[in-house]
Specification:
mainly alpha, 249 residues, globular
Length: 249
């Protein structure tokens, strides 16, 4: 599929992928790349899918940072994750640009499977806020490398923040700072490395429309459906996507 030939099928796939990403982002506070990138990777070049996600990812996280800015209780934790996440993301982005598309496809699929496994098994580890602040730089760097490489660092970030048992609002603020900072440096890095041209940039801007429409719908669904049912549906969908990516020639 030629990404720059925006026929009806291409537009439909783009809109569906980003609307689904927005749906999950609005419902959980995290997850737009972990949905949108595997969907896009099935139909288009996986490296283009990762690059396309960077701008909408920055946009959606800035919205949630603004929405939940008054709920922050541990700004140092959010700051450390964001700063060290950007450092790791720089290294990951350099690897992303220099490696093959098939490698990125497999990384996307494997990280998606890791996300599914961690969601199913749950997180029995509990950390105090003091310990969390001390390990945040390491978590940030590792998460940043994964984010820069395949655009999906949710398994690392979600596992870490879930171990703290913080409120939903504080969770969303902290993880949005982390994802937003990495998305910003990822965009700058891709531009500096000449991976993103003006056409891809405009398509990414367009993708923010279905993403932004999906976010309030996802937030609404959490009030109408059980969280467990919603998560099971998403995980089943991700298993199908990741299997398809791995088995594709």
């Amino acid at each position: 599929m030629d990404l720059y030939n925006l026929d009806f099928q291409t537009l439909l796939i783009l809109c569906l992928a980003f609307a689904l990403g927005g749906l999950v982002k609005g419902a959980t506070g995290a997850g737009s790349p972990v949905i949108a990138i595997p969907v896009l990777a099935v139909f288009i070049d996986a490296k283009l899918a990762v690059a396309l996600m960077a701008i909408p990812n920055l946009f959606s996280n800035l919205i949630q940072i603004h929405q939940y800015k008054d709920t922050k209780k541990n700004p140092k934790l959010a700051f450390n994750l964001a700063v060290f996440g950007t450092l790791g993301c720089l290294f990951g982005t350099v690897f992303f640009v220099s490696t093959s598309t098939r490698t990125i496809e497999l990384v996307v699929a494997l990280v998606t499977i890791l996300y599914v496994i961690s969601s199913i098994t749950g997180n029995s580890v509990k950390l105090s806020m003091q310990i969390a602040k001390s390990v945040a730089p390491a978590i940030g760097i590792v998460g940043g490398i994964v984010q820069g490489t395949c655009g999906v660092s949710a398994p690392i970030a979600l596992g870490f923040l879930n171990s703290l048992q913080i409120s939903r609002n504080e969770f969303i603020f902290t993880i949005s700072c982390f994802f937003g900072a990495m998305a910003g440096i990822q965009i700058i890095s891709l531009l500096a490395l000449n991976f993103v041209d003006w056409q891809l940039f405009l398509i990414a801007i367009f993708s923010m429309v279905p993403l932004s429409l999906g976010m309030p719908l996802g937030n609404h669904l959490t009030k109408r459906l059980s969280k467990k049912s919603f998560e099971r549906l998403i995980l089943f969908f991700l298993i199908i996507l990741s299997t398809n990516i791995i088995l594709s020639p």
